């Protein structure tokens, strides 16, 4: 026998025992046994089952080797939400390479920066993004292989790029029975880039071990714990979050491990999303508030029964008005919390027995909260000295966190990595409180809190109050410079179709919350602008940086 030192104890280890490294390939064991005939659907173009998925993943991995992709190489993927992306999630890391999920909504120069910073050596690109890649291809010196992602049934597109193969060609040259190699579970598996308020995008990366543990904990958080919107094997899953954005919040890995029917919508078109929901029996999804608004506003939504749909909202705060609107349509809507650096899920909304006994309006108060940590997450609100604050619902501090799946730093940026992990906890820069029941509630981002006349005003609180106006579809609040008060709130408002609210009616609506003591009078925005659209980031979040810079002035305002 051999022995391995484990702290202060020695455990007996058989020489031939298998250590079972936590590698992404291990997630495929369960569905191939328990749900081999379950469907995976791509729009109205393609459907196949888990048995075929298993073979295709192995073909892709083997094919990647044959076109020269080696362990440690970075493989860039530019695609919509598709079965191809799902297969790449498994195949690329399973051969020891790294999947770079390229944010296709960045500018061409930002895409160029991320691909060169990552050191991409092979690029898989969808036909819709050819013009972008053509404009930067001659400045990508590391790329050795180009693979075209073509939509089923479409003609070969005209392009100046010299492709080595098409996606299905790579699979055709692969072996469906190949064995994926064994290697260190701490090897990098995926790489993505997060865009901050300043500077170039920052690379965040995750290992096989981190992705496996994140998958298991998200599964426990949504299935084993009493929460709204549970995700279980009988559900039908469809993402409404880009698969380039932190693994579509990790849910494709969860859905695959559970053998769930999966529906991939390709490019996000609201009417198509609703059609797939109806036709394929979708029961679970996730998205940012912007996408949820788009879905509810589309023509097909007015003719649809949404009573079986569960939706987790993340990326930015769930406005109370949107939550109420979705609940009116029968959607089981609730908040989740995380960020690009955290893989991303940290917390989800849970409704304990006491909360479930409350009326709907009181339940909404909890549904829009940040939620409670999922298993293995150490999440706390701390002061400037990293001291945990009381769980009294009043003490305001920053959320700092530890869990086994947080990025260990920013790729190639030691200084920012140290700032991220100052004091041994990852700093989210989210300002929050925690109540006695354990619920976290984010008050604001540190950069978005408005300081006016010595008082702190939460932009998120103002947004959720304005969102309750019956004519309001979307709202964003930022602080703008004021010579007398330092800062004052500015609110941008998009109205629901056909509604005619004006600035005075919105101010009058807000006054009731002052009268009730919900907010003080300093919190009332002096400037409220009615506009056609609010600037968004590449992942659909409200872009407060652009609003503060005055870019909203390019929109219609009143």
Topology:
Layout: E1 2-6, E2 9-13, H1 29-34, E3 39-42, E4 46-49, H2 50-66, E5 74-78, H3 83-94, E6 98-101, H4 108-118, E7 120-126, H5 130-136, E8 145-149, E9 165-166, H6 167-172, E10 188-194, E11 202-207, H7 208-224, E12 236-237, H8 251-258, E13 261-264, H9 270-280, E14 284-287, H10 289-297, E15 310-313, H11 320-328, E16 332-338, E17 345-348, H12 353-356, H13 360-367, E18 372-373, E19 378-382, E20 397-402, H14 414-420, E21 426-434, E22 440-445, E23 450-452, E24 455-457, H15 459-466, E25 472-482, E26 486-495, H16 503-515, E27 527-530, H17 544-548
Parallel strand pairs: 3-13, 5-6, 5-7, 6-10, 7-8, 8-9, 12-13, 14-15, 15-16, 26-27
Antiparallel strand pairs: 1-2, 3-4, 10-11, 16-17, 17-18, 19-20, 20-21, 21-22, 23-24, 25-26
Helix pairs in contact: 2-3, 7-8, 9-10
Characterization of this structure:
The protein contains 17 helices and 27 strands. With 558 residues, it is α/β, with parallel strands linked by helices. Strands 9-8-7-5-6-10-11 form a seven-stranded mixed beta sheet. It starts with a strand and ends in a 10-residue tail after the last helix.
What share of residues is helical?
A: 25-40%
Assembly status: single chain
CATH class type of the largest domain: Alpha Beta
Poorly predicted residue ranges: 554-558
Tell me how many strands there are.
27
Q: Which structural category fits the helices and strands?
A: alpha/beta
How much of the sequence lies in strands comes to 15-25%
| CATH architectural label of the largest domain | 3-Layer(aba) Sandwich
- For the record, the count of structural domains works out to 3
The CATH H-level superfamily of the largest domain is ANL, N-terminal domain
Mean pLDDT, to the nearest integer, reads 91
Sheet with most strands:
7 strands, mixed
